[in-house]
Design a protein that fits this description.
Blueprint lengths: L9 E2 L2 E2 L5 H29 L5 H18 L11 H21 L5 H8 L3 H7 L12 H18 L11 H27 L5 H23 L1 H11 L2 H27 L1 H22 L6 H17 L18 H15 L4
Antiparallel strand pairs: 1-2
Helix pairs in contact: 1-10, 1-11, 2-8, 2-10, 3-7, 3-8, 5-7, 5-11, 6-11, 6-12, 7-11, 8-10, 10-11
Length: about 350
């Protein structure tokens, strides 16, 4: 079976397999950053400007846009190489993480939740050691790199928080559960790509979306969000245009993330997604000319140190050459006698 790194992969028609690693990383990261920067702008407009906080409903709309885009990419179920039950597990974890993250906001304020979510890369690395098919082991400098990145991001994001982190036992339990599910999700996706290298990014996204959409219906009905969102969006139909545009950008980001997981692994991808938050915040400060404090600077330095440390190549010891043992004199004489007997003519 081919290794997943040798498997032919492409990203929206751009071949990745025949390119060096740094080009693969640059292409996939660019797609991810573009998709989620646009996503952040759209969310800012819908959630903060219009005050529409209908997360389940918007995710439901986004899922249907994904399916339409995947269909336009030419993917069909005949191209599937994994059983549906694999994606049932994947989608259950995905929806559980989404629900716990949303629910935790009822018990934690935003700075507290942000602190927990910023640590995602650490549980992803730890969980990788327990996932069948992966059993990942990371060198010590990668754990130090992840820790620097996490601490730097927390310092940077909380530098101008209006309120201090507010913790609640139930909220901490919920957001911790979401973190565990997130760490399992990324490693499970990597395990699928590793154990079956013929799995494509489109299959992963298509099956996860198809299986995940029904999971969104019960919370929409139980909370009454379905009817509230339908009524609000009917009064402002242009919101659907914003949602479709956001979903198209996020689609690019999602496929890019799956490409990163397939090629570089879940932990590296988690570090990139964590660093993206810092880049987004830094851009907002530069664009809107907000003042940067010493805490911002300290956070940026730690983030930079973490990224540089991550880029240090791992020095693997060269395989030892076992010297060929010299033939002992007695064995050499025995071999010579055997050869003479073989050459002796039969009587």
């Amino acid at each position: 079976m081919k290794n997943n790194e040798e498997q032919s992969r492409s990203l929206f028609g751009i071949s990745l397999s025949d390119r060096p690693k740094w080009q693969q990383f640059l292409i996939c990261s660019s797609g991810f950053f573009f998709g989620y920067l646009v996503n952040g702008v759209c969310e800012e407009y819908v959630y903060n400007r219009l005050k529409f906080s209908y997360g389940w409903y918007f995710t439901f709309i986004q899922g249907w846009v994904y399916l339409a885009l995947i269909y336009l990419q030419g993917f069909t179920t005949k191209q599937m190489v994994n059983p549906w039950k694999t994606y049932v597990k994947l989608s259950a974890v995905l929806m559980g993480s989404h629900g716990l993250t949303k629910g935790s906001l009822a018990f934690l304020n935003y700075p507290a939740q942000l602190m927990f979510k910023s640590t995602k890369v650490l549980p992803v690395m730890i969980m990788g050691a327990f996932i069948p098919g992966l059993r990942r082991k990371y060198p010590p400098h990668e754990y130090v790199s992840a820790l620097l990145l996490v601490v730097g991001l927390i310092l940077f994001t909380l530098a101008d928080a209006n309120t201090s982190p507010n913790f609640s036992i139930l909220g901490v339990v919920m957001v911790s559960g979401a973190l565990i599910m997130d760490s399992f999700l990324g490693n499970f996706q990597e395990a699928i790509f590793t154990m079956n290298p013929d799995t494509t990014q489109m299959e992963m996204l298509f099956c996860s979306t198809v299986v995940g959409l029904p999971f969104l219906i019960p919370p929409m009905l139980l909370t009454g969000e379905l009817f509230k969102a339908w009524s609000s969006c009917s009064q402002h139909p242009y919101v659907y245009g914003v949602l479709v545009f956001e979903a198209m950008a996020t689609f690019i980001g999602q496929v890019s993330v799956l490409s990163l997981i397939a090629i570089f692994g879940a932990a590296t991808t988690a570090m990139i997604t964590t660093a993206r938050k810092a880049v987004t915040l830094l851009l907002s400060y530069l664009i809107f000319t907000k003042p940067l404090t010493e805490q911002h600077g300290t956070g940026l330095i730690l983030i930079s140190m973490g990224i540089i440390l991550k880029m240090i190549p791992e020095n693997k010891p060269a395989p030892r050459m076992v010297p060929k043992m010299k033939e002992l004199p007695l064995a050499r004489d025995e071999n010579r006698r055997n050869e003479e007997e073989e050459r002796r003519p039969l009587v």
